[in-house]
Amino acid sequence: MRLIAANWKMNKTVKETEDYINRFLQTFKPADDREVLICPPFTSLYVASRMLSNSPVKLGAQNCYYEKAGAFTGEVSLPMLKELGCSYVIVGHSERRHIFGESDELINKKVSACLEEGVRPILCVGEKLEDREAGMTFKVVETQVRLALSGLEDYVDQIDIAYEPVWAIGTGVPATPEDAVSVHRFIRDLLKDLNPRSEGKTRILYGGSVKPSNAREFMKHPEIGGLLVGSASLDPDSFAKIVESF
Ligand code: PEP
Question: What is the sign, positive or negative, of the torsion defined by CA atoms of 45, 51, 54, 57?
Fold first, then answer.
């Protein structure tokens, strides 16, 4: 089943979350062949969890810490997220990597903690513009995937991966579907190499300037297992259109 995920980033107060979800639930038409996920900021998870509890829409977090509890000021643990009904966590988003300096080693610990707690991680990988221009796209993506999954190869079937080229995030300039497909195929082969038994069980999503007008172009390729949507998910009608676009 394909996954269409909304990453609200640091947007929406509790009141705005209520308005969004009320509107989204009125507009969106559930379908058996796709899973829909909303990842609000931490402060909105409680209200979102209550509002989505009787709907097929899943709830996820945008980040987590790998320890269960303790003296980690400002962090949020997986048991806390699970209690709120989060079944997914976005891990290693490019903004976490490049604004907050998250290392591959930290991302690996977060993926490991998610697996231990039974919360499905969506591992984000993607090259910067300078990497692409230097012909390093595959090398960068390979390194990110290998390090994030180091020691976790047996569990590759329990994660999803989002290929999000950094230069396409929030810029209005998406990758071409063909470029995305070639990286998706590369990641698929890499996963097979890491764990031949996991074949086909990890969804590989595309993210980066997806909007209602281009979502179908990506989703017509069977290699693309879903979409991770930032800016265009902030409006409930626009996100509903993306969910219904294929
Ligand atoms: C994202 O941040 O995950 C993302 C894909 O953002 P946008 O859709 O705004 O490019």
Answer: negative
